[in-house]
Amino acid sequence: MGLAVGTIVVTHLLVIAGSQSDPCQPHGETNVLTGECWGAGGEGGGEGGGGGGNCFSCFSGKECTTFNSSADCLVDASRNSFLLWQDYFEKGGGFPSMVDLPSSWAMPYQAADAGGVVPPLDIAIRAVHRIAGNVDPDSGQLMVCTGARGCALAVLYGMNQVYGKAAGMPLQVFARAPFFALYPLWVPLASTGLPTDAVWNASADPLATTTVEILGSPNNPDGAPLVPVVKNKSHVLCDHVYNWGWNHYSPVDLGCDVSIFSISKATGHCGSRVGWAFIKDPRVFAAASMYNKFTAGGVSVEGQARAYTVLQRVVETNGSFFGVARGILESRWDQLDSVLPKCIASGVFTAFNKQHRGPLLWLTSPQAKDAPAILAAAGILGEEGVNFGGSAFNARLNLCVGPSDWSLVLARLDKLCGSPAHVVWDAVDRVDLASVRERSSMSRFMA
Length: 447
What we know:
Elements: E1 7-10, E2 13-16, E3 29-30, E4 37-38, E5 59-60, E6 66-67, E7 75-76, H1 86-90, H2 119-132, E8 141-145, H3 147-167, E9 172-174, H4 183-189, E10 199-200, E11 211-216, E12 236-239, E13 258-262, H5 263-267, E14 275-279, H6 282-296, H7 301-316, H8 320-336, H9 340-346, E15 351-352, E16 360-364, H10 371-377, E17 380-381, E18 383-384, E19 394-398, H11 403-417, H12 421-429, H13 433-440
Parallel strand pairs: 7-17, 9-10, 9-11, 11-12, 12-13
Antiparallel strand pairs: 1-2, 3-4, 5-6, 8-14, 13-14, 15-16, 16-19, 18-19
């Protein structure tokens, strides 16, 4: 029996979906499994701190209406949670709530194509890329993975098997700083157990035949549009998860031999854990697909069904979502335009990535002060720049937090940068930086 759009049945529980009013908004959302309020990130929030838990940062209570105004409550802008479009989807946005999946559907292990993609999703992915113009969807074989990082691990494994063995020595993997915090961790996780396995080498020679470049473009954390410095295109892994029309820069097809994307950054549906890669070398594709099947056994059919539902709607509306999403992100930068110049003028921060206007704010502090400590003094949890190959004088802030958290971030930045210098530095000196680092230590495992 089909369900009306706007309802989801989990076992015997009828709960709220996007087309109905959510009593937990705007400072939380309804958990469709329990019917209770919850937040983002899933680490004890509301009552005691700034994390997820039952509500969004600094809110608690049955319907997330009790505000904790204590300076010790940090609003968490360290994780790239992609909730800035939550209101759009909460109001429907022209998107169906979800396909109706009977409990008997797709119970066996799925024998999808070689890349693990169920056929409808394959068609939708290729169609959305034709609209976006960020890759030639006919230029390589398509592999679906558990998130973009699943694809990256599989591809690095494939490169080990093909290029490492052929070279008879370890591939040297690098990325230009600042780079996504997980890049160095991916390399050992893609090990084949052979002496020729790749190693992370931040100072690898781009001209060497054994060098592999991981290229984030637009880059995380600073939003810069980058092009490869390694000339051998087969030795470049292009992380294109931010290469969409909602970003500041128009999407660009760099013609990479490996291009990685995800539903997380395409439309903000991070929890579905669906990523995909276009791979030109059939040998790398075969090895990467085998890695995928051995380590994950494939990608959840429910996740693929949700990705199909969302991407198909993007295709049907000729990509209009990207324009709407860009407008929402740009409005946040318009708000920052009235705050950040004060930060520079007061000397609280010395630079930020204003020219890139992407989903992440990359800040630089005076050399005598740690950037994360400055943010913590204002009641904001950012992520340390050292995690991205930067320094203690850098910090990353996520501009994609939900509307509730964003209001707190903006107000606290404005207060910080409008305060007398001696007040700011006194507050910074009182920050327990070790505690702040512990609070943000898990952020590097998010995007």
